[in-house]
Amino acid sequence: MKKQLQLSSxxxxxxxxFLLINGLGGAWIWHREVRWIENTLSGHGERAEIxxxxxxxxxxxxxxxxxxxxxxxxxxxxxxxxxWNELKGMDSTLAQIEQETFDxxxxxxxxxxxxxxxxxxxxxESTGYQPQARPWxxxxxxxxxxVVFTPPYMxxxxxxxxxxxxxxxxxQETVFAYDIKMGNIQQLVHQLRQFDxxxxxxxxNNGTIIGSDQEAYLGSVLSGETAAAEKAxxxxxxxxxxxxxxxxxxxxxxxxxEAAALFLQFLQTNSPAVKQLLDQPAQVLPVKIDQRHYYGTxxxxxxxxxxxxxxxxxxxLPLLSIELILVYGLSRIRKELHxxxxxxxxxxLGQTQKRLEIALKAAQKAAAIDDLTxxxxxxxxxxxxxxxxxxxxxxxxxxxxxxxxxxxxxxxDTYGHQVGDEVIKLASQMIIGRIRTxxxxxxxxxxxxxxxxxNTQDYQVARKIVEDINTTLLAxxxxxxxxxxxxxxxxxxxxxxxxxPLLAKQADQALYDAKATHNGGFAHA
Length: 525
What we know:
By secondary structure, the protein is α+β, with helices and mostly antiparallel strands. It has 15 helices and 16 strands. Strands 1, 2, 3, 4, 5 and 6 form a 6-stranded antiparallel beta sheet that branches. Strand 15 (487-494), helix 15 and strand 16 (522-524) form a beta-alpha-beta unit. The chain is flat. The termini are far apart. The mean pLDDT is 81.
């Protein structure tokens, strides 16, 4: 009897020790996983903010190209009537260059409102439309030459978010403006999604949602309160009820009312969670959304912000299950293997994997990158251009540009190769800074470079890019007290039937013609 009591006490003691160890282990695992979730979710939000800024920079760069085109148009046709006639014929060309982004270009010039679409001006006059009273005009004037975006809104007639980029010109009277479809942001939202149970919203400083995994929320104003959403729903319903006849206008109003109702329902359910995330930016917080437990964070940018939330179940339950299984498995393994041998095996395995990863990254970089400038090397550029040509449709075009430094040998002979290398690096920086993210750029060899401009067959676009590169190159070299250099350029149009070797030969011949003046000339095939 005494022996049995002793055995029971020992069993209870071992059970208590086992429960204590497992409790401490569970708490440690929970803390470790929560910290890992916080770091991962913050990193996901930061990457989303970086990619969003890249999309907005693309919009700005596209607008700057339009400014150059419109400026050239005014120089060639200073009379407003002639400009208007030219604008009417620009839609197809501009849409070909910008594709889905383009939605119309317009300006106020010599107190005239001129635009590219076909709506008669009488329709605007009948509604009392005054461009000088519109936000895009007033914001441009306030910007004093800066490129500005007007608050975006949802176009229920076309089912996309619409915004306007505008800029006051140096004469302090002319304003150029360009309507853009912000569909690239919605594409970015879908690309960023990692899990099914994930909420993602992108909104501006006014709270206007310009990207969301729920399309019905686009154009609504995000805040921690429901008053604005309730007002928006009342206005949408009143506008819908005023339309008595069935048709496109009625359908548009009905869709707007339904979207306002869905967003109000979202805020009514989730207002505390939204307010908590908005009030504590850059913090990963446990919140409750749609009756589910989430981890959420808000990444703030200068003009646009990202709200991100992912389900707790997505993160914790599978990870905790795996961790508990591993803990149990390791406890069994430790009974059969020496701890030192196991630890050494893990260390060696980790070191081998790290060495393989470093070697693979180094090999990939060496195969594709020019060591001096960080640009694509000639082999990688040839492959990428060939792939773009192979993916072209019958009506698609691009322009291949070869560039070569003028008097570069004189710089090497006079100042030495170290200064020559610095000039080459500066030239590469100016080239990369003047092209879009969808375009390609490479250092071929020496002081020779190449650019492939997508979605255009207009040599004026290529010429303007080269002029911009030379202008900034001269200014920056002077600022840095470096020898002046210009780049002469030869260009050729690429189609789906082109081959890179033939294009390179034609571009090289055009470059030979451009080099005749040795002062940043431009020629095309």
